[in-house]
């Protein structure tokens, strides 16, 4: 993978950096041309309680899927949304959408993010055959760093890992990862023939590396799974909006 472009001074890993605002205008994203991006948007969000499907729940007035797109799209060579079920519900967003082909279980539970990675990787191999890397992010990480691809691309070195995940403050975010598309046959076999569902377990069987993300104020990888997570994200969004208003006045 080619080395990333130099990061702006305020993005330096040793600096004390404020979380990027989630409201437009976005700060300067850094694009890495060798990476294709995929937003994993197949989860229902049951732990959030009844209501709208997780990708379409509004955080600070904007659906989670649109937060994810605004963060990731400027950083990658191509973008796809990977979901479960009817892909048409994402059609207004103007980006390719793929749906995994794994049926829900007898209790109606969806197959999980590994099936979403498979669907995205199959799309990437066809749509971007000369881009050997796929970056996946979950739909419920609304404060994704705008220099994510630059840091991850810079960490892919010889010998290259098959999968590179992000670790922040000791927690590994297995769904925020760069995948070699050479894994496609093994991934297809694991999901379709062996019933694999866990990204962590699949990754453990391959050449995997972890990138320790530099510490920043707050948690740029805040993952919204529960009502408490949602309340925290709303508080961050309100604080960022207030800061943006003060800066504009």
TrEMBL record:
It catalyses: Mo-molybdopterin + GTP + H(+) = Mo-molybdopterin guanine dinucleotide + diphosphate. GTP binds at residues 40-42, 54, 100, 140. The keyword Nucleotidyltransferase applies. Its EC number is 2.7.7.77. The keyword Cytoplasm applies. Mg(2+) binds at residue 140. Its cofactor is Mg(2+). Monomer. HAMAP family: MobA (MF_00316). This is Molybdenum cofactor guanylyltransferase. It comes from Vineibacter terrae. The gene is mobA.
């Amino acid at each position: 993978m080619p080395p990333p472009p130099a990061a702006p001074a305020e993005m330096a890993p040793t600096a004390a950096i404020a979380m990027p605002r989630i409201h437009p205008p976005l700060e300067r994203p850094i694009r890495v041309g060798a990476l294709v991006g995929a937003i994993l948007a197949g989860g229902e969000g049951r732990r959030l309680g009844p209501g709208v499907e997780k990708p379409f729940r509004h955080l600070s007035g904007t659906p989670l899927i649109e937060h994810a797109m605004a963060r990731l799209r400027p950083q990658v060579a191509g973008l796809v949304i990977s979901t479960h079920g009817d892909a048409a519900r994402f059609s207004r967003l103007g980006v390719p959408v793929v749906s995994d082909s794994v049926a829900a279980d007898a209790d109606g539970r969806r197959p999980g993010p590994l099936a979403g990675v498979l669907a995205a990787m199959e799309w990437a191999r066809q749509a971007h055959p000369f881009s050997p890397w796929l970056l996946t992010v979950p739909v419920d990480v609304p404060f994704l760093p705008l220099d994510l691809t630059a840091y991850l691309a810079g960490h892919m070195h010889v010998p290259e890992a098959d999968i590179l995940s992000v670790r922040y403050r000791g927690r590994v975010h297995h769904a925020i990862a760069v995948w070699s598309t050479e894994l496609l046959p093994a991934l297809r076999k694991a999901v379709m023939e062996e019933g694999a569902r866990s990204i962590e377990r699949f990754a453990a069987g391959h050449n995997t590396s972890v990138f320790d993300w530099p510490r920043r104020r707050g948690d740029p990888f805040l993952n919204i799974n529960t009502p408490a997570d949602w309340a925290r994200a709303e508080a961050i969004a309100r604080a960022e909006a207030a800061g943006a208003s003060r800066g504009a006045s």
